[in-house]
Amino acid sequence: MLERTSKEVDRRGFLRLVGALTTATAIAGSVAACGGPSSTAAGSTSGGDAKGGSNGTIEAGISYALSTGFDPMTSSGATPVAANLHVFEGLVDLDPATREPYAALATAMPQQVDDTTWRAQLRSGATFHDGSPVTAEDVVFSFSRILDPANSSLIVQFLPFLDTVTAVDASTVEFKLKYAFPLFATRISVVKIVPKKVVEADQKAFDAKPTGSGPYKVVEATRQDKIAFQRHDAYNGPRPAKAATMVWRLTSDPTARVSSLVSGRVQAIEDVPYVDVAGLKGKAVTESVESFGNLFLMFNFARKPFDDKRVRQALHYALDVDKIVTTAMYGNGTASTSYLQPSHPDYHKAATVYGHDPEKAKALLAEAGASGLSVTLLTTNTGWVNDIAPLIKESWDAVGVKTTLDIGDSSGQYKKVDAGDFGVMAAPGDPSVFGNDVDLLLRWFYGEGVWTTKRFRWAGSPEDQQVRGLLDQAARTGDAAARSALWNQVIDLVAEQAVLYPVVHRKLPTAWSDKKLAGFKPLPTTGLSFLGVSAA
Residues 229, 232, 237, 242: is their CA dihedral positive or negative? Predict the structure, then answer.
């Protein structure tokens, strides 16, 4: 693939924008004919509310379909996880934009009783969407179902320190830890509180149409179409809904998503195509936020020659990441110099940094006896990944690696991965939707769980055991500097081993109308947040 010149890039952006504007004109006409947002099933756009929010409707363009259900114990899809920010509460939640913790269902941040005991008090008057009160029993149930191995929760890997959760009284919960864990007060934000009676009555129905205690409730969810929300009027927490209704249009087509914003059908869109960022200026506010979200290379450690770190390292050194960032991402990315992005508060530059070095790549392949290697690169059909995949092939072909691209939808590609039917995969990853501390971000991929056992199949290797040992040691360390030093050792090790490691950390472009939304902020994670946002 030839590198595009600046003129070609500008022309492509111009043509995309012309297409968007043409479609936008048609959409604007149809919306006007239908009476605009006030005629949607989501609700009216007139009037006001005593809680400080208007009775308006917020409409948004969302990039991803509903790939999983909403049950926060198992939900991992980008769209349902973002929706759950509005539907559920933890005792503690993280601000979606700043990632700072705040007391949500708890009246205050949890209080430490001794080294291994913490207590939290529930907010008085908190209710679920069905009108039932939130009780300590619901909190205990929400934690217990995650800790139960029979439920195979994605969240359990983030709670290795937790022993028992008990109700002291109707509004007080006590946590007993296996060992002192300094990050406890913020880490429990990964657990969202669910109504025991509703979940036990019909978990599948709950997964499809959730009941939480958050400021919005889901009234409709259609996999390829939309999610409709309504304000939870009885909500009495710190982040009340400031609109009566929301409609999230699930629009995977990037041109249609841009068109819907330009036409005014929606007020905000996520995942703005990089080619359209410049063209939207003057028509909407656009901002690209640096994120942990990345494109990683993942190798099947159980398949030769990918069990040899020299081969894995060679394929990283072969990549012209600067060209990827400039040409495919229009500057909206940063070549990885660590497992963490440079803006992360605990960023540590790894001891191994993979600059573009084709000669070193060739030498490592020869040293490993892998010259003339043939590789099938598995990738997902995510828009921005599609733009990068041909440049990976170009880089690998240039060092003598015969590369074939296998591009497909995420669910199908991961079925191949989980069956062991792959050698190397390039895919997007972003566990920062669950939390931002280094322990959590590392445990998502490198802790005990599906990634090390069923995906890159590293579990049981000496390096795997070393990483887990360092993570466990850091988790038990009360001194912040000592804990950071242990995390840095892990970062150095995973960079050197490169069995799953970022190629580039991306900037997430979001666009919105500041004339139609008040208080909106773009996020450093996938998804959009309308907590504290009102429709003007």
Answer: positive
